[in-house]
Amino acid sequence: MPDSNDDLLAFTVATVWREERVSCPHPDILQAYETGALSPGAMEFIEFHLQESECPYCNSVLDDLRSRQLDAEDARMSDLKDRLMRSTVSELRRATGA
């Protein structure tokens, strides 16, 4: 019969690191990774952490950062379209004397 203490000791370094998020970089570092602003060694570590270690927390943070970036780009594009439409209408009115 297995000792119940064996269950308590049945963990790996990877499990501890994952559960305690020992190797997880700060979200600012993930943002810098996303923009390519890290040194090659740091980029390599982050890629390993995200892809090989498959850290669910950091992959989630990165997905959120990407979503926010897309939302910001959509808002800028919408603003640009609105300004272009207003200036076009204004110029057409001026040109036609309306």
Number of helical segments with 4 or more residues: 5
Terminal Cα separation, in Å? 93 Å
- The proportion of residues forming helix, as a percent range, comes to over 70%
Report the order of strands and helices.
Answer: HHHHH
The structure class reads mainly alpha
Low-confidence region ranges: none
How would you state the average pLDDT, rounded? 83
Oligomer: single chain
Strand content: under 5%
The biggest sheet, with number of strands, parallel, antiparallel or mixed sense and barrel status, is: none
* Overall body shape: rod-shaped
Number of strands: 0
What radius of gyration results from the CA coordinates?
25 Å
Describe this structure in words.
The chain has 98 residues and is mostly helical. It has a domain at 4-69. 79% of the residues lie in helices and 0% in strands. The chain has helices spanning 4-9, 13-20, 27-35, 40-52, 56-96. The longest helix is centred in the last third of the chain and has 41 residues, at 56-96.
